[in-house]
Amino acid sequence: MLQFPGLYLALEKYPNSPMTAKQILEVIQKEGLKETRSVGTSPLACLNAMLHTNTRVGDGTFFKIPGKSGLYALKVSLNFVYGLYIQLLIHFMNVSIDIKVNRLDSLVRK
Questions:
Q1: Which residues contact 46 (CB under 8 A, 6 or more apart)?
Q2: Which of 25, 54, 90, 110 has a CA-to-CA distance to 12 between 20 and 30 Å?
Q3: Alpha helix segments (H runs only) across the chain
Q4: How far, in Å, CA of 71 to CA of 24, rounded?
Q5: Against a cut of 0.90, is the pTM above it?
Q6: Total Cβ atoms within 10 A of residue 6
Q7: Residue 56, CB half-sphere, CA atoms under 13 Å: how many?
Q8: Measured distance CA(35)–CA(30) in Å, rounded
Q9: Cβ–Cβ under 8 Å, residues 65 and 59
């Protein structure tokens, strides 16, 4: 598989912002994430090829945003997603419990 220096870092740095290959390359170059001169004569063409190849592999690191032309993002592991879900669930359960306790407190005080 092709490797492109800084690709993972660029998408990881902006996880909520799917980007085109051109935008990813700009982030890599502007923020100095990796040296791109070693990639070849056309870093953008190389990056496009790498993204296209990687998104066609079932367990690739990146995915193409469905219905969007040339937008790519970093895949997150299910463990990460489940972890966030559990954190949100616990948070909302605590909020719900606090609200119920406050309602009971007001009834008890009367």
A1: 2, 4, 39, 40
A2: 90
A3: 7-13, 21-30, 43-56, 78-109
A4: 10
A5: no
A6: 21
A7: 8
A8: 11
A9: no
64: enclosing H helix or E strand: strand 62-64
Instruction: Check residue 107 and give its pLDDT.
Output: 55
Q: Which two tokens stand for residue 72?
A: 């790519």
Cβ distance 25 to 43 under 8 Å?
yes
Q: Are 80 and 33 in contact (CB under 8 A)?
A: no
At a CB cut-off of 8 Å and minimum separation 6, what does 69 contact? none
Q: What is the spatial distance between Cα 60 and Cα 33, in angstroms, rounded to a whole number?
A: 21
Q: Scan for tokens 């790498």, then name that residue.
A: 50
pLDDT tens digits, 41-97: 788 888 888 888 888 776 777 888 888 888 888 887 555 556 667 777 787 777 666
| CB-based contact 47:21 (threshold 8 Å) | yes
Count the residues in the chain.
110
